[in-house]
Amino acid sequence: MSPPAAASAERTDDGTTSNAGEYRRRDTVSIADNVVVSRQPLTATRLNNAAVPLIEALSTSEFRSPASIAAETGHDRETVDRLFERLATRDFLEWRPARDLQHRPPTSVVVTVRNDRENLVHCLDALAELNYPDYEIVVVDDGSTDGTRELVEDRAKDDSDIHLVRVGEPDDPIGIGAARNRGVDAAHHDVIAFTDADCRPRPPWLADLVPCLAAADLVGGRVRPAGKSAASVYEGVNSSLDMGGYAARVDPAGTTPYLPTANLVGRRAVFETVAFPERNIAEDVDVCWGALDAGYTVVYTPTGVVEHTYRDSPREFAARRGTYGASEALLASEHDREDSSVDVPVAVLLVLALAVTGVVGTGTVATGAVVFAGAVLGLTAGVRGWRGWRRARRLTPAVSLSDLVESWGRKRLSSAYALSQEVTRYYVLPIAVLGGISWVVGPSWLGPSIATALSVTVALPAIVEYRVHDPETSRTAYAGYYLADHLGYQLGVYRGALVHGTLAHLRPSARFRLVS
After folding, report:
1. Is the pTM of this model over 0.90?
2. Domain at 107-310, CATH homologous superfamily
3. Alpha helix stretches (DSSP H) within 427-474
């Protein structure tokens, strides 16, 4: 089945269509003469005279379509599309999917549940408060024994728009993916929304998301933690379900790789064409990637918020993260995708290799290696600094020397954070094993050196996160959930590798990207 016409077009202010969505200037962006500057991260570019009024027509508060800007300024719409898309890619502009606020068709909300009656009570209460004109609730119960079915049946007596679909048996559940497919079959409307029993959609949920389906085929909203427990506070910083505060097109290799089914709305045609795989993990990833492969438009917006209840027990928290981690091997065995996201300069690898040679070696070889490593690092920093200074001089006064120095420091810290976080999440366990062996059979300095380096690597991201976000919990509690998160996830990653017989998701090329 080919995707509907709306999948390839977005409706704009004047009723025409465009592929570009809507844009506004980021609040960190300024224009000086014909130079546009973004402060975080520091990026600057010189515009031609024709482009300046197009950017000046955008404010930092109101989203506008390229079509409306083109009509206002007399420029060709495709030219405006291309300019805005390039500037959004470089973080000068913020993008969001186009929406038609009058597009509010009847919607079916599918909730899957198994033995989670207490959370389902809150979920149904939240759904009853939605600010949306016409919707039904389809609860798919997969063999619950805790009174879940009786709860839904009682609610259905008072509300004809609540329906119970009974699937599975207490000792033979059909699983989450299959239950979602049964929900699609039972839904009466052509727009279908998914959430989970442990979620609480906010009142504007559907009203925020469904209008995006006037131009897209799948749209997801933001998932935020419910409550103020230490687990919820940690999730407020590091949730694996929260795709962030900025809208984006879903891209398997990008910052928004998929949409969680805790907060997913789409056309029936998508879910019938690309059914959920009948399993309990990564079913949402498969649907999003399958929809993209089929030519559908899949977008994310931070509006349409659903609050998620997280498990407070660090053990349960780590187990859940382990389940997510195990799904990486499954996806790697089914999809030939690499999402390398951390930049590692070639010069850094060279310096590290030479430094290790200096530590392991002796005499002249060691001294020469260390000196050469320092020379390479100094030369690289000097060349980059000179190039940056020359660029800054061309962009003066829009970019000052202090701007350049501050940006350099922020970028170095960001790179160290990203590299440390990736190592912490995927490689701490094998490195720790290597360190333990070295402590016993290696030189006396090697084991302690590995332990020290590993401790710094693990601690750095947690320290940065706590400092930047200032979460409302103690350092100890945050550190506990941080370790439960990353080590639990990592155990799942290696367990998945054994179960699915692949290390594709652990290849360095799948995690890191060399840059000059």
Report:
1. no
2. Spore Coat Polysaccharide Biosynthesis Protein SpsA; Chain A (3.90.550.10)
3. 428-441, 446-469
